[in-house]
Design goal:
With about 80 residues, this protein is an alpha+beta fold. It is built from 2 helices and 4 strands; from the N terminus they run αββαββ. A hairpin with a 2-residue loop joins strand 1 (about 20-25) and strand 2 (about 30-35).
């Protein structure tokens, strides 16, 4: 999750507002990042799915890009 958020931050347009939310529920860690960012070529989907998680990436909305995902948490 950290690297997914970092990737969006690094791709965000200068001076843009970035919103990050994180929560846990049951055995799942969920996150969402909204920013004016170009996510073309981003490895976010591969990272999350490699860990058994799910992710959606929406681009082109008035807010820029929105990445939302969830990862299973053990222990």
């Amino acid at each position: 999750m950290y690297f997914c958020c970092l990737d969006v931050l690094q791709r965000a347009a200068a001076g843009t507002t970035v919103t990050i939310s994180v929560r846990t529920e049951g055995g799942t860690l969920s996150f969402a990042v909204v920013a004016d960012a170009d996510l073309e070529g981003s490895p976010i989907r591969d990272r999350v799915e490699a860990l058994g998680g799910r992710v959606t990436i929406e681009t082109g909305s008035g807010d820029g890009a929105r990445v939302a995902g969830s990862l299973p948490v053990s222990g």
